[in-house]
Amino acid sequence: MVEILFYILSTITLGSAALTLLSKNPIHSALWLVVSFFSIAGHYILLNSQFLGMVHIMVYSGAIMILMLFTIMLMNLNISHEVSKPFITKVVATIAFCLVGLLLLSITMRGAQTYELQYANHGEDFQSVQVLGKVLLNEYVMPFEMVAVLLLLAMIGAVLISKKDKTDKVA
Amino acid sequence: MSTNTYSLSGRKKEVSNKKLTWTEKIYLVAILKGMMVTLKHMFKKKVTISYPEKTRPFSDVYRGKHMLMRDDEGRERCTACGLCALSCPAEAISMKAAERTADEMHLYREEKYAEIYEINMLRCIFCGLCEEACPKQAIYLTKSKQIAKADISRDNFIFGKDKLVMPLEAAIENTKQQNQA
Amino acid sequence: MDKTIIIDKAVIIVVVFAVTMLMAMYATLAERKIAAWIQDRIGPNRAGKGGLLQPLADGLKLFAKEETQPNTPNKFLFKFGPFLAMTLALMTSAVIPWGDKFHLFGRDIELQAADLNVGLLYIIAVLSVGVYGIMIGAWASNNKYSLMSGIRAASQMISYEIAMGLSLIGLLLMTQTLSMREIALQQEGMNWNVFYQPVGFLIFLICSFAETNRAPFDLAECEQELIGGFHTEYSSMKMGFFLFAEYANLFISSAIISVLYFGAYNYPGMSWAVENWGVNIANVIGIFALFIKICFFIFVYMWVRWTLPRFRYDQLMNLGWKSLIPLALLNLVVTAIVILLIKN
């Protein structure tokens, strides 16, 4: 039952990801990416981590992709606007992408060990947000705070860029 | 006194650009006040009149479609003097006079009568001046609700004698009632 | 899996779906009636007694209308938009607890389609993707007004989601759980969350107005500037789906407000009713209590719509970013401090 679901979800994920790349229309690309994100959330739920699944939908499908669609709609991208890149750039990009893909694949292959999951022994509900919060703020408090600082910096940077340059007005 | 400081209605308000206080700035009080106003209106008497079942009473001075009257013997009163056409501010009335012959005595009261009498209902403003000008009390504006039916052709809005003269049956009815009284 | 559970859930889902549709239908009538009353009119009163059949007449009219299709290269997305709007509007109802446990046929029956332990997050997630229907439909219409409306809807939704989420975190700190059922259970008697989180409730209410695209935040469909916005190009039942989705949203967000802040199906004297009349009767009263609360909030939505004028776009953004988000953050910090002080 779960296996069948997994295969269906994987097909949707990979198919929509491929369509994201192959679509001519940028809006269609973005929409296929949304489908892809939804199916990844489905994978999370299959792995019994409902919290991650929901947050994934909230953040990626709900916020980031809406912003992305918003920008694409504003920019009015057309095929005629597309900058044609030289052939050599395309070849190099393909090679670089393949190398990165190979690297990632090899890392995941090496790390792919079967873990003995010990949910029952712990007697704790690992889906619960309470447990997750405790783990994040005890064992991983440093990375957690670092990510927070990084996000804050990004936010400040965005505000700074969007602020009007006041020196121009004076001059 | 200049007009700037003077208010005829006594309700003149100066526009003030004073800074809003904090309580005014969050608008919550103003919003609640507004919502109370609308809530009060929910329970007020409704002004709707459900039309086909109920109708608003006409004004006493309502002026509807014209009618060329007959006298108690059923003869047309109009003598085609043209005063109505002269008084008409919209120039909606036109007529052509004719002389009464001997065998038409029972049809027309006066020696001269209107052979053609036309009112252009597209021009008429229902002011009632024709009614006031008429020396023979021949033209009246009735209380009829029906004024002029919608039509595509402009010609159909020029009402001739066929539409304006009082029907003979109505005249007979009137005479009967007068005799009874 | 137990077969009875599947049957239970199927029945609950069908009933919830039917009730949502019914409420959405009659919300259209209620809207017109309330608008009329506020404006000293009577409102629709010809179809049926007091206009009770008006929604049916409206639906029939929409079905009978001609389907028009704009000259768009995205025929599929054009049809997909209303469908998505409706689906996402109905999805939220899955985690709403409509009543306490019933004792029937010798077992407990929960009146909830799914008791997710991340129920609150599920609601925020579905609300956050709720704008896709409008956006896709608006873009596929191939019309500049519609596109503007889609962009407006998207930016408005993104802005108000943050304040909404932050106000919910304040609630979450108090309840210590994300499950809607437990949140409902905690508010027994008159122990409603609104008394502990009044500011959070206010922010949540304002954001709900924005999220459901209703006045005074209905900038996405304003008639004056955008000639109807995203449903400019829609006709017949596709248009009907958009309108219907709006009213389904209205019903469901009223339900969410009632469950989160107004004690869900709890009413004062419920425990007494359980002792004296039995669980089932007490629960039936509880469902009625929930529906009274929901109807009250639907009324509030309409009342506000016919009172307040529409925001200007910059005012909308200022309110969202400069007032509601800082206020929600303040509410969050104060709640956290108070909880810390009480615990120590």
UniProtKB/TrEMBL annotation, chain A:
Topology with respect to the bilayer: Multi-pass membrane protein
GO cellular-component term (any): plasma membrane
Name of one Pfam family that matches: Oxidored_q3
Catalytic activity line of the entry: a quinone + NADH + 5 H(+)(in) = a quinol + NAD(+) + 4 H(+)(out)
Keyword flag Electron transport: no
Superkingdom: Bacteria
Record field: transmembrane: 6-23, 30-47, 53-75, 87-107, 140-161
Its job: NDH-1 shuttles electrons from NADH, via FMN and iron-sulfur (Fe-S) centers, to quinones in the respiratory chain. Couples the redox reaction to proton translocation (for every two electrons transferred, four hydrogen ions are translocated across the cytoplasmic membrane), and thus conserves the redox energy in a proton gradient.
Name this polypeptide is given: NADH-quinone oxidoreductase subunit J
Upper lineage: Bacteria, Pseudomonadati, Bacteroidota, Flavobacteriia, Flavobacteriales
UniProtKB/TrEMBL annotation, chain B:
Binding site for [4Fe-4S] cluster 2: 88, 124, 127, 130
EC numbers on record: 7.1.1.-
Details of cofactor binding: Binds 2 [4Fe-4S] clusters per subunit.
GO annotation terms (biological process): aerobic respiration
Binding, [4Fe-4S] cluster 1: 78, 81, 84, 134
Keyword Iron-sulfur carried by entry: yes
Reactions that this protein is recorded to catalyse: a quinone + NADH + 5 H(+)(in) = a quinol + NAD(+) + 4 H(+)(out)
Compartments where found: Cell membrane
Stored NCBIfam families: NuoI (TIGR01971)
Quaternary assembly: NDH-1 is composed of 14 different subunits. Subunits NuoA, H, J, K, L, M, N constitute the membrane sector of the complex.
Name of the protein in question: NADH-quinone oxidoreductase subunit I
From TrEMBL, chain C:
Catalytic function, reaction form: a quinone + NADH + 5 H(+)(in) = a quinol + NAD(+) + 4 H(+)(out)
Transmembrane segments: 6-29, 76-99, 119-141, 153-174, 194-210, 241-264, 284-304, 324-342
GO molecular function: NADH dehydrogenase activity; oxidoreductase activity, acting on NAD(P)H, quinone or similar compound as acceptor; quinone binding
Biological process (GO), any one: aerobic respiration
Keywords: Cell membrane, Membrane, NAD, Quinone, Translocase, Transmembrane, Transmembrane helix, Ubiquinone
Record-listed E.C. numbers: 7.1.1.-
InterPro entries the record matches: NADH_UbQ_OxRdtase_su1/FPO, NADH_UbQ_OxRdtase_su1_CS
Pfam families: NADHdh (PF00146)
An example Gene Ontology CC term for this record: plasma membrane
Domain of life: Bacteria
UniProt topology in membrane: Multi-pass membrane protein
Primary location recorded for the protein, binned into one broad class: membrane
Subcellular localization, as worded in the UniProt entry: Cell membrane; Membrane
Subunit relationships: NDH-1 is composed of 14 different subunits. Subunits NuoA, H, J, K, L, M, N constitute the membrane sector of the complex.
Family statement: Belongs to the complex I subunit 1 family.
Summary of the function given for this chain in its UniProt record: NDH-1 shuttles electrons from NADH, via FMN and iron-sulfur (Fe-S) centers, to quinones in the respiratory chain. The immediate electron acceptor for the enzyme in this species is believed to be ubiquinone. Couples the redox reaction to proton translocation (for every two electrons transferred, four hydrogen ions are translocated across the cytoplasmic membrane), and thus conserves the redox energy in a proton gradient. This subunit may bind ubiquinone.
PANTHER family per the UniProt record, alphabetical: NADH DEHYDROGENASE SUBUNIT 1 (PTHR11432), NADH-UBIQUINONE OXIDOREDUCTASE CHAIN 1 (PTHR11432:SF3)
Protein's recorded name: NADH-quinone oxidoreductase subunit H
Organism: Myroides marinus
Encoding gene (name): nuoH
